[in-house]
């Protein structure tokens, strides 16, 4: 019984972390058919996220193919570390040292959109605010006491939080609020694509199967009527 209680106590923090704060999430309104959005999101990921967060289950050449990027263009403009086009999208950050720097090793983002949801990512990246008590000087309304810096701060600018718990408009960024929202939506769109690269193909195949079943049902019904007309 003692071992069971200890196991339950050990799991409580995990469930609390998984549940997260009850914050109203904004709609990302992603469009996986928008190749330009996906390309922009891919570029933002390479420039701002790859240094810490890998996509270890996604290959460069698969991404180039799905996003309509010529391999030579992809190697020249999306690959800066001398890897091959057939390699997975990884970095060289050592996990042990990263755990010391950030409190825990930065997670792989391949399945982040499926784990959290695109709306969570979209809201999270727009919910940083200044907090001098945190190691990197920022906190996040969606992920309280987050252990990472606001890597897009030069784009968005600096926000604070008021007494009612609302985040104030960002100041000092290179983008307007509307422009920053587009950048974040494109990045979220790309991360949703990475979570399931074959999603559009699967959905297209599903529609074809439904059409086939509908046609097959009509043919079967007509055959049934033909076969049974003499019986009645």
Q: Indicate how many domains the architecture comprises.
A: 2
CATH architecture of the largest domain: Orthogonal Bundle
Using only C-alpha atoms, the radius of gyration works out to: 24 Å
User: Terminal Cα separation, in Å?
Assistant: 70 Å
What topology emerges from the helices and strands here?
Layout: H1 2-19, H2 35-48, E1 55-59, H3 60-67, H4 71-78, E2 88-89, H5 95-102, H6 112-116, H7 118-124, E3 128-130, E4 138-140, H8 153-156, E5 157-158, E6 171-172, H9 177-195, H10 199-228
Helix pairs in contact: 2-9, 7-9
Task: Describe it.
The chain contains ten helices and six strands. It folds into two domains: 27-197, Cytochrome Bc1 Complex, Chain D, domain 2; 199-232. The longest helix has 30 residues, at 199-228. It is elongated and about 85 Å long. It has helices at residues 2-19, 35-48, 60-67, 71-78, 95-102, 112-116, 118-124, 153-156, 177-195, 199-228; strands spanning 55-59, 88-89, 128-130, 138-140, 157-158, 171-172. The strands form three sheets. The protein has a two-stranded antiparallel sheet with strand order 1-2. A two-stranded antiparallel sheet has the order 3-4. A two-stranded antiparallel sheet has the order 5-6.
Tags for this entry?
232 residues, mainly alpha, Cytochrome Bc1 Complex, Chain D, domain 2, two-stranded antiparallel sheet, 10 helices
In short:
This protein has 232 residues and is mainly α. The protein is built from ten helices and six strands. The radius of gyration is 24 Å and the shape is elongated.
